[in-house]
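User: My instructor asked us to take a sequence, write out its structure as C-alpha cells, and then describe one feature of it. I'm not sure where to start. Here is the sequence I was given:
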Amino acid sequence: MVSLILSLAWGYDPDPPDLARVDEPLIDAPRGACEPRPVPGESWVPHPGAQGVQGSDELAALEAFLFPADLDWGDKERRGTRTDGVVIIYRGQLLYERYDHGYTADTKHLAWSATKSFTNALAGVAVRDGLLDVDDSVCAHLDGLPEASCEVTVGDLLAFGSGFDWLETYEGYSPTASSVLAMLYGEGHRDMARFAAGHPRRDAPGATYMYSSGDTNVLSAVVGQLLGPAYGDRFPWAALLDPIGLDATWERDGAGTYVGSSYLYATPRDLARFGLLLLHEGCWGEERVLPEGWVAWSTEVTPGIRTKALGRSDGDVQGRQFWLNRPVPEAGQAERPWPHAPEDLFAAKGHWKQSVNVYPSHDLVVVRTGDDRDGQFDYDVFLPLALELAESAP
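Assistant: Let's start with the prediction itself. The C-alpha cells for your sequence are:
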C-alpha cells in the first residue's frame, strides 16, 4: 500500500511491471517524464490556418466525399456515406469540423468498437500504477472462471489472443450463431465478462488471433477489479477521462462492468482529446497518463496475426485494441491496409465507420463519426484527403 501511494503521488515505482510477452520489448519506465506540449483547456484553440482552408480545393474534395450532396437521408436502407461529424486537430489546434444529420459539436455519439482502445488505455493506467502486469492470469483478478480460462493472460486479451471459441459476426450472418450478439443482447448481457471467459478454448492462449469483443470485456472486468478500489466506482473518469477533460457516457452490463468493447459515447471533439493523448505517447501536458512506451507497444502488430489469424478480413491489421496501417508479409499481406495513408497511422475504429485516427509523423488527429452500412465508405480515400487538407493549411 505504501508503494502504491508513493506511485500515485510522486511517480515512484519500486517494482515496475514487466510488460514483455514472448519477444516483445520491455516497458520498464511506466512513469517516465513527459515533454511538455500544449493541450486544450475546456475547448479547442482554433488553428491559425482554419480560415485559410475555407474554399480550398482540398476542403472541397474532403467535403464532397464525407457529405455527398445527393445523399438521401430518408433512405431506409441507409445507403451512401453518412457522416454525422468530423473534427481535424492539426498541431494541437482545431483546423476543421462539421456536423450533419442533426448532430452538433455538443452531441455525444456512440463510439461502438472504438471503445476498445479506451479499455486498452485503462489497462495502461493500471500498469502505470503498479496494479497490473500483462502477464497476469485473468484468474488472478476474476474468480470462479473455468480452469482452462486461467491460462489466458491480460496480454492475450489485449492482443485478441485468448483462444476462446468465439464468433464475432453482425449483419448478414446468423444472429443465433453470433457470440457477440449473444453477449451484448442475449444471455450474456447480465455479465458479459463471465459469459465470454466461460467459453471453451479453441486454441492455446497466444497462439492465434481472432477479433473478439468478448476478450475486451473480460479485460474491462479485470481492470475494474483493480481501478475500482483505487479510484472509486467511476474509475474510468477519475483515472483516465477527467485528467484529459473528456466528457463521456459509458454504459455498464448487468454485473456493473463497463462495456469496454462497445458502449462509450462522446462528442467528436472529446474523442479528439483521446487521440491527442495517444499522439503525445500517453502524456497530457506534463502529466503521464499512460506508461512510457505503452502506446508504442500497443500499436505493434499483434503476434497472432503474424502466426495464425482466424476470421480476419483482408487488410485488417491489429495491434493491442488498435487498428494499424502496417504490412504483414508473414500473413501474406505485402501492402498497407490504406496504401495512400502514412504507415505509422493507427486508429480506434468502430462499427459503421466511427474512427479516431492518429498520424504521429504529421502531428495530426482526425475523428469521424457516422452511420455507414453499405460498405461504400473507404478509409483509403478519407485518410489521405484529411491529411491533404491539414498540409494545405497556411
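For the description part of your assignment, you could build on this observation: The mean pLDDT is 91. Try explaining in your own words what that tells you about the chain.
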